[in-house]
Amino acid sequence: MSSQEGGAAESGLNAAAASTSRSAMNDGDVLAVTIGATVPTGFEHTAAEEVKEKIGVDAQIGKDRGRIYFPITTDKLSQVHLLRSVDNLFVVVAEYDHYPFKESKEETLTEMMQLASKLPWTDALAVWKLNGKLKKRKGYRKGGNVTKAKSNCEVTDAAVDDTEQPKLPQALSAAGSQTKAESTAAMETSTTDSEEAETAAKLLKFRVTCNRAGDRHSFSSNEAARDFGGAVQEFFQWKADMTKFDVEVLLNIHNEEMVIGIALTEESLHRRNISHFGPTTLRSTLCYGMLRLCKPQASDIILDPMCGTGAIPLEGAIEFNSSFYVAGDNNDMAVNRTVNNVCHIQKRMAEKGGASGLPIDTIQWDLCNLPIRTGSVDIVVTDMPFGKRMGSRKKNWDLYPSCLREMARVCTPGTGKAVLLTQDKKCFTKAISRMGGLWKRLHTVWVNVGGLHAGVYLLKRTGGVFGQTPEDVYESRGTVKACGDENSDKELA
Amino acid sequence: MKLLTHNMLTSHVKGVVKGYPLLIKATEVKVNEVDFNPQFVSRMIPKLEWSALVQAADELGQREDLPGELVPEYENNEEFLKKVHRVLLEVEVIEGVLQCPESGREFPISRGIPNMLLNDDEV
């Protein structure tokens, strides 16, 4: 590519280059980039497993919790959007394992500002643009000032394709002056492609989001975002807009590690299945993580005895659809919401063609007295009441032992499993410790649910036949009294 | 409610010994199209109470020619597996009642959801 000089010459060159560069992009200029993904804390390994399984690459788990990174070629981008364990996606512009932050705030921030113009933005921006067609949108933003015509877009293409870094700002600022003249003419030409409208260089709006963790930084995340953002704005001549942005630049700092990225998801992917929410609906990415943990097999019967809005069994019925899900709750609203959510998904599936029938049923029942045959369930997966958002701590003392027993009864001895999420770790641990004859603790994943620290407990059903284990001497109903315990312990001796 | 689910449901009314299988009295039944997965069906069969399944299908008038006994070597018998698939997953009770065979207690089904909640005195 020849170097570009004057404004007029530039526009001519750009127009010519653009028509070829656009077709070059469409022919599949495949780029190799690193994608970053935020996942529910605690499920980083599960997410990495899914990436290996579906994208075929190894993922690195970021030092700051809740993030994984993996390399892709851009032809895989649409598949990345189908991952079920990720909340948000971004493309990495640059990553530093040991960024030498200076002692003083001023020096550090100045350096960061200088960094903005030196970063390899091109590839990441190309991915951002490609992604524009793939990501889910909140809805096309209407606006009187969005008047795009081909000329503007061509300039953008040329700018984005320009691999010579120093040329980039020049092309863009020239584009700016060029398009101003043409924009009035552009108003008359109709645009059919909304993508082009959004990616026009002139009106690209951006914001910088900074996440900072570590106790040895001299600056705050706000300061970093502000200064880095200022430098980005000057470099690209974009317009800063905190709410209606096209490009979201991410600045993630964790101790000495710094990652700069561009967001690829507009709204978090985690609310995908649920249209009818309840007070404690779990995000689907967390549901997926819990299900993966119990490794559902073909024809497994999977029970959620306190399903709420059905988030867990629904995610299972969609993603691990060779198993069968039985969802239940005692609450009227909950069972109705579950059925509504199932119908909503089935309708969506029917619209896409093909048989719509999810392997799930919903029942209204009392979980301490399940109307289910003994030993007929393979896996129990559920979100147990936390005592803060639902139920109460006192209720949990009685509830947990009762339902753990009932779950043990319906679960197949020897092969059955349970994956239980709870925030009331003390109550749960105590209840489980008295059930060694029925349940064995395998593994615990510590997660964050709506700001609350919770545990996902993976349990294995022992071979013990229900009704014949030592625990069956223990009365599960009623308040537990210390002397009552002593008596039953004596009986066991 | 699909018949696969019905196969697992039992009456838990206090004092009842023989609460399985629940009798079905349906006023609205739907038959949907569900993707056929032969492996799913053949692995599910050993987990079922076969006679209860046949009885339930009969009660709904959906039995067709489902045999009263399991055919030997059904794992590779696609025709048979398809019949089982239909009865297990495609037939759905939308409105009706489930009845405890011993106590006669009825549990309503509405919008496909059986309500198995008991009153305090029945627990």
UniProtKB/TrEMBL annotation, chain A:
What biological processes does GO assign it? tRNA methylation
Question: By its UniProt entry, which InterPro entries does this protein fall under?
Answer: RlmKL-like_Mtase (IPR000241), RlmKL-like_Mtase_CS (IPR053943), SAM-dependent_MTases_sf (IPR029063), THUMP_dom (IPR004114)
Tell me a Gene Ontology molecular-function term this record carries.
tRNA (guanine) methyltransferase activity
- PROSITE patterns recorded for this chain? THUMP, UPF0020
CDD domains given in the database record: THUMP_AdoMetMT
Q: Per the annotation, which location comes first and is thus the protein's main one?
A: cytoplasm
UniProt keyword list: Cytoplasm, Methyltransferase, RNA-binding, Transferase, tRNA processing
Per UniProt, subcellular location reads as: Cytoplasm
tRNA processing listed as a keyword: yes
Record's Gene3D superfamilies? Answer: 3.30.2130.30, Vaccinia Virus protein VP39 (3.40.50.150)
Pfam families reported in the protein's UniProt record: THUMP, UPF0020
Q: Outline the segment boundaries, as ranges, of region: Disordered.
A: 160-194
Q: Where is the THUMP domain?
A: 158-264
Bias (Low complexity) occurs at: 179-192
**Which SUPFAM superfamilies does this entry report, sorted A to Z?**
S-adenosyl-L-methionine-dependent methyltransferases (SSF53335), THUMP domain-like (SSF143437)
Coiled-coil features, chain-numbered ranges:
none
What do the Gene Ontology cellular component annotations say?
A: cytoplasm; tRNA methyltransferase complex
Concerning its family, UniProt says:
Belongs to the methyltransferase superfamily.
Per its UniProt record, what PANTHER family does this chain match?
Answer: THUMP DOMAIN-CONTAINING, TRNA (GUANINE(6)-N2)-METHYLTRANSFERASE THUMP3
Record protein name field = THUMP domain containing 3
What organism is listed for this UniProt entry? Gasterosteus aculeatus aculeatus
UniProtKB/TrEMBL annotation, chain B:
Sorted alphabetically, the Gene Ontology cellular component annotations on this record are:
nucleoplasm; perinuclear region of cytoplasm
Query: What's the main place this protein lives?
Result: cytoplasm
Quote the subcellular location field of this record.
Cytoplasm, Perinuclear region; Nucleus, Nucleoplasm
State the source organism's domain of life. Answer: Eukaryota
Q: Which UniProt keywords apply?
A: Cytoplasm, Nucleus
Molecular function terms from GO: protein heterodimerization activity
| Pfam families the UniProt entry points to | Trm112p (PF03966)
Q: Which InterPro entries match?
A: Trm112 (IPR039127), Trm112-like (IPR005651)
Name a single GO biological process.
Answer: rRNA (guanine-N7)-methylation
Q: Cytoplasm: is it a keyword of this entry?
A: yes
State the family named in the UniProt similarity comment for this chain.
Belongs to the TRM112 family.
Q: What is this protein called?
A: Multifunctional methyltransferase subunit TRM112-like protein
